[in-house]
Backbone:
């Protein structure tokens, strides 16, 4: 698994969040995002930036949609549908009433994402609140499919339902069918997303926001979204569950985790059986309070380009871009540097003395959270660290990386097995099935215990 370094898309002291990404036929990356003064702000707009160098740099922002008084745009999800054409579907809410009403709209660009046409009204799936976080899926027969959520009365006690939308004329008209009834189930079904699996089946994930239920539910359709299987639990998580199918058939889901007691993290899981079972969470967003809304597109086999958002406080949230590869393929312009002996040894999984590994020098790249520590304090597969805190070493005044060890042998504090993470300004790499021996406690620092790793061994 490789995670490349991050590149700021929108870091201007505003609250920039809920981003979307399209990659056009020319290779241009087009990103749209919400921009306001807080997570929910009257007057919030949709902005657009693009990159012509594979995400290495981004243009200045252009406002695509600005709301009327007492309203706010919430999101605008992009899909590249043909040469030169980028289609977007989004929603805005009317905050002059309580609870706010929601309206879905669409718009398109015919110049590779440079500009977008005027907002186009469409049929709504629900009569009071209609909201959407699902990009358009194009089926083999040309039918467009998406998913939305909402309610019909504004008084459903926040029990939202999910509807599937279909268009056979490129968004000219839409028909909607409710497939998950929230009030009937006493559930808040929100932020559904779709993926088209290699076998032609549509895969649906739904976030649940009912108090005490953080389940992501799944269902499938073998007839293009007309009929659906019953909802079943997939895994636990928050934020919209963005789904991407890779060229080797893997289904990758990006979302926000709440399993980690140290903070909510931007993570992904991979399924290799069309969503029936899922691998462990892998963190890609570095910080205790990421916004966690992400959108990924496969750009080369095994490599995903993505935009995501990191909330620094209640009024500042940044959008950034990076590449990840869950199969370990090299990621563009940002892979882990191999300039020093220690890095080469780590990549070869040979014995090495680990030192100078607490990275404070690049905390801006690590999203400026907790001076660069918090992103490693993550317990893989639900395991907790032996000490209950971060395992780090810092033997020098110019730290160059970070590592953390994940515990699967809580009865033996001299051996910590399983995940190993080593990273810094240039990226982050995790090696499974690694054992650390001879951890020696040294002087405590703040609330953490520090350890010195004498040797590192690989084992199966």
Residues:
């Amino acid at each position: 698994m490789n995670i490349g370094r991050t590149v700021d898309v929108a870091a201007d002291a505003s609250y920039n969040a809920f981003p979307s990404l399209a990659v056009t036929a020319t290779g241009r990356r087009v990103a749209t995002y919400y921009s306001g003064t807080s997570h929910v702000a009257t007057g919030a707009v949709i902005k657009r930036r693009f990159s012509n160098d594979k995400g290495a740099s981004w243009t200045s922002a252009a406002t695509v949609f600005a709301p009327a008084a007492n309203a706010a745009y919430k999101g605008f999800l992009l899909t590249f549908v043909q040469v030169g054409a980028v289609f977007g579907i989004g929603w805005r809410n009317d905050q002059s009433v309580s609870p706010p009403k929601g309206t879905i709209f669409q718009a398109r660009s015919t110049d590779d994402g440079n500009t977008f046409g005027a907002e186009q009204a469409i049929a709504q799936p629900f009569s009071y609140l209609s909201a959407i976080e699902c990009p358009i899926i194009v089926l083999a027969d040309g039918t467009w499919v998406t998913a939305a959520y909402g309610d019909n009365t504004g008084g459903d006690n926040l029990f939202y339902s999910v509807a599937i939308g279909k268009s056979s004329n490129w968004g000219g008209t839409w028909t909607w069918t409710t497939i998950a009834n929230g009030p009937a189930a006493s559930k808040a079904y929100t932020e559904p997303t779709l993926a088209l699996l290699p076998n032609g089946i549509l895969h649906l994930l739904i976030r649940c926001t009912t108090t005490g239920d953080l389940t992501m539910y799944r269902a499938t359709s073998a007839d293009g979204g007309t009929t659906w299987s019953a909802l079943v639990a997939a895994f636990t998580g928050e934020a919209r569950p963005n789904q991407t199918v890779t060229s080797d058939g893997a289904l990758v889901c990006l979302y926000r985790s709440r399993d980690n007691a140290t903070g909510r993290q931007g993570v992904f899981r991979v399924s290799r059986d069309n969503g029936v079972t899922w691998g462990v969470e892998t963190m890609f967003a570095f910080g205790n309070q990421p916004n966690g809304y992400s959108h990924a597109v496969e750009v080369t086999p095994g490599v995903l380009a993505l935009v995501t958002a990191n909330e620094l406080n209640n009024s500042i949230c940044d959008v950034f871009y990076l590449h990840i590869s869950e199969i370990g393929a090299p990621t563009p312009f940002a892979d882990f540097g191999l300039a020093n002996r220690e890095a080469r040894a780590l990549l070869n999984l040979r014995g090495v003395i680990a030192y100078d590994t607490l990275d404070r020098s690049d905390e801006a790249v690590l999203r400026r959270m907790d001076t660069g520590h918090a992103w490693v304090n993550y317990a893989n597969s639900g395991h907790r660290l032996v000490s209950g805190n971060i395992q780090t070493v810092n033997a020098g005044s110019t730290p160059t990386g970070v590592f953390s060890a994940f515990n699967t042998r809580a009865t033996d504090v001299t051996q910590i097995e399983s995940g190993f993470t080593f990273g810094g300004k240039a990226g982050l790499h995790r090696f499974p099935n690694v054992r650390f021996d001879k951890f020696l406690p040294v002087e405590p620092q703040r609330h953490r215990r520090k350890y010195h790793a004498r040797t590192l061994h690989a084992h199966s």
Observations:
- Residues 334-460 have pLDDT under 50 and may be disordered.
- Helices lie at 182-185, 341-347.
- The chain has two domains: 2-325, 341-458.
